[in-house]
Amino acid sequence: MASRLNPYLSFDGDARQAMEFYEEVFGGTLKLNTFGEFGQQGTPDADKIMHGMLETPSGFTLMGADTPPGMEYTPGNTFSVSLSGDDETELRRWWEKLSAGGSVAVPLEKQMWGDVFGMCTDRFGIPWMVNIVQQSS
């Protein structure tokens, strides 16, 4: 798997509708995962989108999610740049450079879905998400 760079959009409870709209616009394959699928069953956020990914026939990748519980939705700051792939050395090197002199919101570490993930804002104010896909054994 090659590394990929793509926009990651944040929504205030309407990620499902937005991502389905983008699927209608661009076509392709849409995959949606809810917070309930990853340990938050029975909560008010169980049906909200934790992660959505649209891959289009034109080669576009668009990701999006509802703002996680406990994080503030701030209109105007509703995007991040996402780096993902399975080349752990490369992605960790990029993470170190991007987070240096910036701020780390989520440390780069193993997450409940099995991948290594982190969120930072670089020294220029650009938010980044890094996801290192873990190979299944």
Determine the number of helices (DSSP H or I, runs of at least 4 residues): 2
CATH superfamily: 2,3-Dihydroxybiphenyl 1,2-Dioxygenase, domain 1
The side-by-side strand order for the widest beta sheet comes to 2-3-4-1-5-8-7-6
Overall pLDDT level? 90
By CATH reckoning, the class would read Alpha Beta
**Please, how many domains?**
1
Q: Low-confidence spans: pLDDT under 50, at least 5 residues?
A: none
The biggest sheet amounts to: 8 strands, mixed
Gyration radius from CA atoms, angstroms: 15 Å
Terminal CA distance? 16 Å
How would the global form be characterised? globular
Based on secondary structure, the structural category is: alpha+beta
The CATH topology? 2,3-Dihydroxybiphenyl 1,2-Dioxygenase, domain 1
